[in-house]
Specification:
Chain lengths: 154, 154
């Protein structure tokens, strides 16, 4: 019996428990979790990532639920899907995919993956990169020059 | 033969490959890696963490090299060390411990752990929480109000 392959996708700019929940729930649906990390040039529907793509890839690959992580294709988002041939593609609760259109595109390419939308994580304090960014600007924006000499690694 | 226990410590505010390198190198020294995550109230030598302690703990626990993660003791940093009784305690290249004094304090408590300082990670682009914070302030500080309505999760 072949293993059941799951694909999850995302930018994963500043990792938080919402990402982790999405990946853990995705992994539960099968045996091998492949994560496709968005290329910098392809993030157009929201602000450009803070963290460069190689670093975002490295951190996603280090998370326990993740079996394989790779960068997306800059031109054709379906190319890695064609290589992986997943049984399931998961979508995060706030990812802006039209599931009907995605299903149609997969069918046109003869990719029979089922699409599963993962529910919303019961939010903790800072479960969005946007909120982390806002907190940083609020807490540190005024005095980051003073701060930079004393902070080493936090 | 009992397993060789390693303790690593840190704040782990915004996770980056420098943290990962420190934890991976620590894990290589033994069998079980215990990570003690600094309590919010105990981070005094650098700016207060952006991410609350429970969330920092959750994200550290999700990293592949980490076998056990726990919050530190608010009053006595040696209490968790006494419970774990590690063979080795690792220190990050930029953690401000006086290794001689630390060895003396461990000896006074009858804790025979060896202290190992982990070398510096060959820096990638953003291997410090400080640099991530600075980039966020530079890139987003001016227009984060415009941004907040479009960005969902990155």
């Amino acid at each position: 019996m072949s293993s059941r392959r799951i694909v999850a996708t995302g930018t994963f700019d500043i990792l938080h428990p919402g990402h982790l929940f999405y990946l853990e729930e995705s992994k539960k649906l099968g045996d091998e979790l492949f994560v496709i990390v968005a290329r910098d040039v392809n993030v157009k529907h929201k602000p450009h990532p803070i963290i460069p793509e190689d670093q975002r890839l490295q951190m996603v690959a280090a998370l326990k639920p993740v079996d394989h992580a790779m960068l997306g294709d800059e031109k054709d988002m379906f190319l890695p899907i064609e290589k992986i041939r997943p049984d399931i593609i998961t979508i995060g609760f706030n990812q802006m995919f039209d599931e009907g259109r995605l299903a149609q595109q997969l069918a046109e390419r003869n990719l029979p993956a089922k699409i599963v939308r993962i529910g919303k994580f019961a939010d903790g304090d800072l479960c969005s990169s946007r909120l982390v960014v806002q907190r940083i600007i609020t807490k540190r924006g005024q005095d980051h020059n003073n701060v930079s000499e004393t902070e080493q690694r936090s």
